[in-house]
Amino acid sequence: MSEAAAGRRTAPVAAGPGLPPEDLPKIYRTMLLARLMDERCLSLQRQGRIGFYVPLQGQEAAQVACAWALEPTDWVFPAYRELGIALVRGIPLTTLFDQFIGNAGDILKGRQMPNHYGSRDHRFVTASSPVGTQIIHAVGAAMAAQRHRDPIVTITFFGDGTTSSNDFHSGLNFAGVFHTPTIFFCQNNQWAISMPREHQTRSETLAVKGTAYGVPGVVVDGMDAHAVYRAVREARSRALSGGGPTLIEAQVYRLGPHSTSDDPKRYRTDAEMAEWRARDPVERLKGELVRSGQLTEADDEKLKEELRTEIGAALKQAESTAAVDPLTIFDDVFAVRTPRLDAEREELRPYSAPGSGGHP
Amino acid sequence: MTEITLVQAVNQALAEAMRADPDVLVLGEDVGVNGGVFRATEGLFKEFGADRVVDTPLSETGIVGAAIGMALYGLKPVAEIQFVDFIYPAFDQIVSELAKFRYRSGGQYPCPVVLRSPYGGGIKGGLYHSQSPEAYFAHTSGLKVVVPSNPADAKGLLTTAIFDPDPVIFLEPKRIYRSVTGEVPAGEHRVPLGVAATVRPGTDVSVFAYGAMIPTVLEAAASLEGEGVRTEVIDLRSLVPLDEEAILASVRKTGRAVIVHEAPRFVGFGAEIAAILAEKALYSLKAPVKRITGFDTPFPYALENLYLPSPARVAGAIRDTAKEG
Ligand SMILES: Cc1ncc(C[n+]2csc(CCOP(=O)(O)OP(=O)(O)O)c2C)c(N)n1
Ligand SMILES: [Mg+2]
């Protein structure tokens, strides 16, 4: 924590400007939207209206400020906790709810668990559950962008625990060797389910893991939107000017459970929670806006109401969308259905109508 | 005897094996302080401590590779893979190393590792928390593959697996971790590997299944009683080694076979049973062998109940098969 506060780095990077002041209200709005969306989804899961949910509370500043530093042409390779990134990329709330429900409006056609969304239009690649697999994809996409001489970066998101995965190491090594325009954005939220950061690796920081691969590593306070923005901006311009990849470790905290299946009381203390709650990134940016006269408590209440209404409307629309068509199970296995899949489709047809007994 | 759940039976087998033999230890992600995400290792950390209930970094390659090293040195490690869908980073360690150590060393280096892992659908887990990959492992010579369907077998088979001299992939049907309860013998209880169980005797159609499909098949079989179809249900319990005799004996009696599993049909485990029947019991068959399985697609989220073999689909297949010949 002290390292983050001091902005300690394992590689020197030039100090750049913080967030554009005129953007701050919009950034705050997006962080608040992420927070309120999160609260709503946790309660929807408890009510059985969505099957599962992975909250991001505590990581709003890291995500929103990071995504703010990107351009729409950059490619995002997320894990499953990246709601803040998705919102900045402009993925509509209805698209998210359609995915969480898995209805006929879901662009993934009901195939994946909640949180594993993706949208090609937003250059937000569809997420997978096995951790770390996306890291090396970001490097490969960057190699392709290099070949095309496209002025873009790829960025990949993952957690502290995922630095133990094979693909994290393959990804850093390839990025180092091929000097790719890739940003490795690690959200160190201090926990990998029940495994604390200090038991995950003996390294002093996660950022230092870049060093041996020839990839500069940077530690930032992920509760500070300005610091995050600056680090990503710098990494991005270095990548675009041929300076290669950067590993950024944003030190944050997972204020909620790992997922709706998790009970953090089993492995962490209330005291630790309280200590980090006091550094809530949403409250922190709000304080800044209030102090600078850009926001009053009354404005904030009004904004919350407005956002809750927006969320409610999107949810209502998604909940009134039809269920996904059963026979779509057989689509997208290949570009064209094989005769075998056609035959299985016919086998399922009599069981596929509601009430036909196909549902156990 | 009191009734316990399947996951409690797993826990009991682990605890008793650890009490009986100091060389038995458990490792995996979140298995210690947290007691496992499904609570299969609940209480073990408290009883046996961090030396024998090891919370590992997030690396399946690391977990399986380390378990192999421990086994080479003489321990009996039981590694948990949190969901079997996450076993693939360790596939190289399993296929190239675990399965082949004994063979490649001319028998010098046995590798008695148990890899326990929840498998299967029905919990709204989507593509990556639902898969049934038993065929990959059954196809790899040198691995034993075991799938219990009830608490007593879970305890008995896991205990046998832990003390078996060979590597065992132990797939736990997570859909019925808590929904199925049953009496479990107290104290050491072993069920031999390679012995199937007739869970319902019958004379008209043989159904071969394992794991979470057993309750589904039993429901289908019961629903056909009124129609006069007497279904025999065989729980294979262990896929490797496989109780071929039990399969053949049942089909020689009924002349009809239906095979049920959650995994995709194409090159699934059912294909091996069908091949055994074609090779060794063809002249006893009065009807074509039928397979009711998951479809040849990845495992879907919203439509999982249609993807999984349902009692209705299984009953349909049994009924059709019973009519033939
Ligand atoms: C290969 C693999 N193993 C295990 C899991 C189960 N799992 C899901 S998330 C998780 C912890 C991830 O921790 P971290 O990388 O710190 O990310 P966070 O969830 O904290 O954002 C685990 C073990 C998985 N998804 N993939
Ligand atoms: Mg984490």
Could you characterize the architecture of this molecule?
The complex is a heterodimer of chains A (360) and B (325). Chain A starts with a helix and ends in an 8-residue tail after the last helix. Chain A folds into two domains: 3-319, Rossmann fold; 325-360, no CATH class. In chain A, the strands form two sheets. Chain A has a five-stranded parallel sheet, sandwiched between helices. Chain A has a two-stranded antiparallel sheet with strand order 4-5. Chain A contains 13 helices and seven strands. Chain A is globular and about 60 Å long. In chain A, strand 2, helix 7 and strand 3 (182-188) form a beta-alpha-beta unit. Chain A is an alpha/beta fold. In chain B, strands 3-2-4-5-7-6-12 form a seven-stranded mixed sheet, with helices on both faces. In chain B, strands 9-11-10-13-14 form a five-stranded mixed sheet, sandwiched between helices. The radius of gyration of chain B is 19 Å and the shape is globular. The model of chain B has no long low-confidence stretch (mean pLDDT 98). Chain B folds into two domains: 2-184, Rossmann fold; 197-323, Rossmann fold (3-Layer(aba) Sandwich), CATH 3.40.50. Chain B starts with a strand and ends with a helix. Chain B is α/β, with parallel strands linked by helices. In chain B, helix 2 links the parallel strand 2 and strand 3. In chain B, helix 3 runs parallel beside helix 4 (91-98). At the A-B interface, helix 13 of A face helix 11 and helix 12 of B. Thiamine diphosphate sits between chains A (81, 129-131, 158-162, 189, 191-193, 254, 258) and B (29, 58, 60, 82, 86, 89).
